[in-house]
Amino acid sequence: MASIFGHVAASTAIGYAFFPRQVRSATLLTAGFLAFSPDLDVLAFRFGVPYGSEWGHRGWTHSLVFAFVFGLLTAWLFYRKQQDFLKIAFFFILSTMSHPLLDMMTNGGRGCALWWPFSTERIFFPFRPIQVSPMSVGAFISDWGLTVLASEFFWIGVPALILVVFAKSLRAIRP
Ligand SMILES: [Zn+2]
């Protein structure tokens, strides 16, 4: 996993960069939750599901299919009557999808089952600069946590900010 901060930074940037009209506190909070939600799969460890299982950590919840279905379903549950439902759905799907894509750039753990259920192979990107985050809050409050935050600030925070500023300036030129 990247940390909750890294994932929420990504969904927030996606919102401001691509869906400025859909950004409000409720949609940002929901997108933030969705961006983090694939890691709720760590609960599977409690039930004895091994890491390598497709039902374990970085398994099925870290797939494009999960992101599409869960993002769409959440938008449908709360926003289906809104005129911009499709845009909100797209915002939510991309936010959920950002999670495995970021995890695939971390330098530890197993890869993500991105293509589940078509393939259970665990994959990474060839470029993995992000320091992997510990799985427990206890372990996060340490030097490891600080290293993670510094790494995410550089590899997620800064690119996210550049994306938002770039998208805003493009809109200013061609509103
Ligand atoms: Zn994850």
List keywords for this structure.
mainly alpha, binds zinc ion
The string of secondary-structure elements, in order, is HHHHHHH
Distinct small molecules: zinc ion
Radius of gyration equals 16 Å
Tally of individual helices: 7
Oligomer class: single chain
**Domains (count):** 1
DSSP strand count: 0
End-to-end separation: 37 Å
User: Which descriptor suits the 3D outline?
Assistant: globular
Mean pLDDT: 94
Structural class: mainly alpha
Low-confidence segments: none
Helix content: 55-70%
Biggest sheet overview? none
Strand residue percentage: under 5%
Question: Which secondary structure elements does this structure contain, and how are they paired or packed?
Answer:
Blueprint: H1 4-18, H2 25-36, H3 43-46, H4 64-79, H5 85-103, H6 137-140, H7 143-173
Helix pairs in contact: 1-2, 1-5, 1-7, 2-5, 4-5
Bound molecules: zinc ion (ZN).
